[in-house]
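WARN no homologs supplied; continuing
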Amino acid sequence: MSDTILLNLGMKTLIDNLGVVDAERFVYLVNKEPGDYTEFRYTLFEGMSLDDLCREATRAKIEADERMANNQ
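OK structure emitted
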């Protein structure tokens, strides 16, 4: 997947799930925060078990596949 496709798909995913305003707000917040993305990632999934994380990843993949199928 090219960088352009990834950026477009990522932004579309944010907009589909958050709406335009909150998607832009999310991008702003991630960009303005100084620090390490790795640390952010650890706190993002804090308190989730491996089973929880796997369930969420599976659900997100199914939803992404459905959106891709609907857009073709």
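Residues 3-70 form one domain.
OK
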